[in-house]
Known about the structure:
Layout: H1 2-18, E1 52-58, H2 62-65, E2 78-79, E3 85-86, E4 102-103, E5 109-112, E6 116-119, H3 125-138, E7 146-151, E8 154-160, E9 166-170, H4 177-183, E10 191-202, E11 205-211, E12 231-236, H5 238-270
Parallel strand pairs: 8-12
Antiparallel strand pairs: 1-4, 1-7, 2-3, 5-6, 8-9, 10-11, 10-12
Helix pairs in contact: 1-5
Amino acid sequence: MKKAIKFLCLTALVILSSCASRKDFIYLQDMNELQEYPVIQKYEAVIHRDDKLSIIVNSKNPELALPFNIPGSNGNFSIGIDGSITSTGASAPTDGKNPRGYLVDVNGEIDFPILGKIHVEGLTRRQLTDLIKERLIEGEYIKDPTVMIDFLNFKFSVLGEVNGVGTYEITGDRITLLEAIAMAGDLRPTARLDRIGVIREYGNKRRILFHDIRSKDLFTSPCYYLQQNDIIYVEPHRQKADERDQRNFSRWSMFLSFVTTITSLILIYTK
């Protein structure tokens, strides 16, 4: 009796383990070992509406930079040991979860101290840095300004056949499509490797571009480096999902039949 029960349990474990899903795909299949693949594009993140920017103006004369770092009407600023004056813009009170920053409004503008409204949507950090420097010099406010700009809320979303669907935020502004998939817990076995889409906003429009993660052509895609608010959508492989469900159903049917048979034999044996 005990031997029969042990045998039944062992068989059940074997059948259940065989039902576990396995990944049968390989990324970047056409890459050759030790072969060099050039980086074709120079990546720069582009500023969008609803972005939050940290903008710091410095000068050899800290007093000249002071008005351009005052966060609106709050008047909060700090002077470093080296004499630099920093601010993170006009916004709600700062804390670890909600850093202060210049919020890009629906018109793609920020309200910058002294300089007023500045249209920043569509610019890179470098372009905005040059623009603010130019206005400071042209207005004869500062002859030698230095401007540092950072993103405070760079985020993207991952949907579909991944293990960790959700919205993710990163520090900085540089993340690749592969890194984003890794953050989302990698692909599920039912994912279509040739239908990994990136939905991106262009002004008042959106576009989707699909990628084949098995190919090295992924590196040359304009969406290989993600932009703010990109949405990654991984399509399911319907045929694989149906086949997997059918296999699991067949295995469970066999298992139930096996259990029923063994149970009947045990009852007969005990009687």
